[in-house]
Amino acid sequence: MKMIIEKKKIIVLLTVGVMMMSTVLSGCGQKNVIKDKNGININKKYSDEVMVNIDGSKQKYDEKSVTNGLISKETGIGIKYTEQLKTLIEKNNIFTWKNPPDSFNFKYESEELVNLGQSADKKAKEEEKAKASSTGSAESLKALSKVTADAYKELEKKSPKMSFDYAAVYRVPDEKNNDGGKDTEIQMKELYKNIEKIAVFNKNTYYLAYNTDYSNLTLNDKDKANIKNLIGDIKLLKNNICIFPEDDTKEAAVGFKGTIDKFNTKTLDGQNITESSFKDYDITMINIWATYCGPCKEEMPELQKLYEKLPKNANMISICTDAEDEPDLAKEIIDSVKGKFKVIIPDKNIKETLLSKVKAVPTTIFVDKSGKLVGDIIVGAVNENGSISEGYLKKINERLKMIGK
User: Fold this and answer.
1) How far apart (Å, rounded) are the C-alpha atoms in residues 252 and 297?
2) What is the pLDDT of residues 142-196, one digit of tens each?
3) How far apart are CA 34 and CA 23, in angstroms?
4) In this structure, are strands 264-267 and 94-99 parallel, antiparallel, or unpaired?
5) Thioredoxin domain spans which residues (predicted)?
6) Residue 40: partners with Cβ closer than 8 Å, 6 or more residues away
7) Where in the chain is the domain with CATH 3.40.30.10?
8) Which fold has domain 254-402?
């Protein structure tokens, strides 16, 4: 009899505890949430404790610990993964990237493409290990390097037919002359056939973009089934979106606000380079990229076009963030577009003063003769009437005017 009474007490206590927790969560949600005219739930502020998705469901978001979704303070967007999406991410079939300050993107990669990528990465590690051990001859290392390069070439060749741009959640700031927002809109319209407006909040318009046609891709039956299930989850994915006020995007996305006044390093082709390289030009554009970054590689041909038509008083260089670890791959990427501009291998000072504050690539900054920042920092590529090179050229001319040149 005593045991039964004790069990009843425990049940009552648990019930009360659950009710209290529910009340707390409900209270947090109600105080922090507004609804727009379409009934979309929007959070009035960011919270590490609990926030509300647009359909009213509650979700704990924390940039440091979230494992079942994505959250970005500088974007003002959170996304809870659907079960299908989470499973495919764990299997490496979904490539996810955040493009501060504007979007989250999801791309499906076929099983064959995933296997090719893992094989290429394995060959790259074998090459790196052989170079570190210094046991192989120069010829054997060169042959190993070619094997690695060929593996990545095959991966790049097959990628367009074996990957599916699934979905993106993004925002477009409403401020006038917001070129970053315009660039995002152009990019999304190029990538996705379906674009749904979610809400307007805090001078931003939020969208969900997605594709449903994968008929032109080379996929096996399992890949087709996976993509079909992803498409079937679009409505659920939309409901799992969380909107809240974004941080100051320029400062949050890239914390660098000072001067690049000291560095002494080398370029990919072995030339010495220091901050004195800025002195010969009124404006120097610095494009920051990485060998693993798809959007970075896609804009490389346009960067070479830009380099060929720069004003005489302007220059363009690039910093490859992982050039020290992947010099051969970096050279291959530059050589594939016949790039003539200098590519810097970052030294300790560049890493500490600049790259440590860069949270996304590609990122582009502009400096004057003394290495001082001029104008806004650009995260992602720019576009002018469908041309990336013209977009960057416009930015360079704008900055020349800023310094009276």
Assistant:
1) 24
2) 777 777 777 777 877 888 899 999 999 999 887 654 545 666 787 788 889 999 9
3) 18
4) unpaired
5) 254-401
6) 54, 198, 199, 243
7) 254-402
8) Glutaredoxin (3.40.30)
